[in-house]
Amino acid sequence: MDRRRKRRVAACFPVRIWGIDAKAQPFAQSAKVVNISNGGALVDGMLRVVKPGEIIHLKFGDEQARFRVVWAGKTGTQREGQLGIEGLAAEPSIWDLNLARCGEFVGKG
């Protein structure tokens, strides 16, 4: 059973991410978003390990916002290099999409 609370839309967006990694070191890198929802996204291509609960900055095009890391893929698994992130309530939505009109959903709502 899928635990997701919101529908997700398949995507492939290049983004720029920066923040503090699991070793308390600042980082900045490029990655990609592979699916999005109204409240968050799945990021792939992380080169640094980031702990759940950390706040990261994500830039997409000219838009940027802060997100909280909900989960991070463990080293040596299929999810290595992935982050599940959720937008902070005070931050704007940076995805210029009407998700309700997108037809290709990943998972159930």
Layout of strands and helices, then pairs:
Elements: E1 8-20, E2 26-36, E3 40-44, E4 55-60, E5 63-72, E6 82-87, E7 105-106
Antiparallel strand pairs: 1-2, 1-4, 1-7, 2-3, 3-6, 4-5, 5-6
Task: Describe this protein with a few key phrases.
Thrombin, subunit H; disordered C terminus; mainly beta; 6-stranded antiparallel β-barrel; 109 residues
Report on this model:
This protein is mainly β and 109 residues long. Helix content is 0%, strand content 49%. It has no helices and seven strands. It has strands at residues 8-20, 26-36, 40-44, 55-60, 63-72, 82-87, 105-106. Residues 102-109 have low confidence and may be disordered.
Terminal CA distance reads 11 Å
Helix-strand sequence: EEEEEEE
What percentage of amino acids are in beta strands? over 45%
Write down the overall geometry.
Answer: globular
Mean pLDDT: 85
CATH superfamily label: predicted glycosyltransferase like domains
Under the CATH scheme, which architecture would be assigned?
A: Beta Barrel
Q: What number of structural domains do the residues give? A: 1
| CATH fold type | Thrombin, subunit H
Sheet with most strands: 6 strands, antiparallel, barrel
Task: Output the CATH class name.
Answer: Mainly Beta
How would you concisely characterize the structure shown here?
With 109 residues, this protein is an all-beta fold.
